[in-house]
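Try this one yourself first.
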């Protein structure tokens, strides 16, 4: 089946990392419930209280560093390495589980937990270490570092690359996404405009269910490996 597709785009959301333990951040005892999201995930929040924002992402970084890829991540990596199709992964997730699974062509539209950026010289620094308000950029030596994460209201990363991928794909697959937050929630619709086949895999029907030709329901660690096998058969 894969031989019939020239370019396959996967959009991955929080659901694909849930079975790696990262869903606990939003449960009753999770990390997100200890903070107001406007305080830790907005530019105003960072300007008003950078110490709090760094504290939040330091905790998040530590938890994501320990997380390991599950069978869904491994299935995508396997497909990339054994299919002749051009396969890209656009991810809404800031974890690095796709990288840990040895995937390639990964586009982090919301940034990465293991990156900082300097507000002075705009350098991007990869690190798993904690960052504090007094931490200095290794390039310009200024204490002007922030998480390299897309805060609420900011533009996604790789916008033009992602637009091109969506416009040139012949198969678009959304994995573990709720379909509620633009611009990601609009990708399937845009892909269909270009006569691209669209498929969604999730525990529940996504909000943009009508934009998909097919919906596969179930645990992603089971449904995605099975789906990948159909592409390789």
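Now uncover the answer:
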């Amino acid at each position: 089946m894969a031989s019939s597709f020239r370019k396959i785009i996967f959009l991955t959301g929080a659901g694909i990392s849930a079975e790696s333990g990262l869903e606990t951040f939003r449960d009753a005892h999770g990390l997100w419930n200890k903070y107001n999201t406007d305080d830790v995930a907005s530019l105003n929040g960072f300007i008003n209280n950078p110490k709090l924002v760094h504290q939040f992402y330091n905790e998040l970084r530590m938890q994501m560093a320990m997380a390991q890829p599950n069978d869904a991540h491994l299935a995508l990596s396997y497909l990339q390495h054994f299919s002749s199709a051009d396969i890209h992964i656009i991810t809404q997730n800031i974890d690095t589980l796709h990288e840990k699974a040895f995937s390639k062509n990964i586009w982090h539209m919301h940034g990465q937990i293991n990156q900082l950026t300097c507000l002075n010289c705009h350098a991007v620094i990869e690190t798993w270490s904690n960052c504090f308000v007094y931490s200095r950029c290794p390039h310009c030596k200024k204490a002007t570092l922030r998480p390299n994460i897309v805060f609420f209201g900011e533009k996604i990363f790789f916008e033009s690359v992602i637009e091109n991928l969506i416009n040139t794909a012949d198969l678009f697959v959304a994995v573990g996404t709720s379909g509620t937050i633009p611009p990601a929630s609009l990708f399937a619709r845009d892909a269909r405009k270009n006569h691209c086949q669209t498929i969604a895999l999730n525990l529940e029907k996504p909000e943009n269910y009508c934009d998909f030709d097919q919906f596969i329901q179930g645990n992603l660690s089971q449904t995605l490996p099975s789906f990948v096998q159909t592409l390789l058969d």
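Discussion: The beta strands are 7-12, 86-91, 106-108, 111-118, 124-126, 145-149, 171-175, 197-202, 214-217. The chain has a mean pLDDT of 93.
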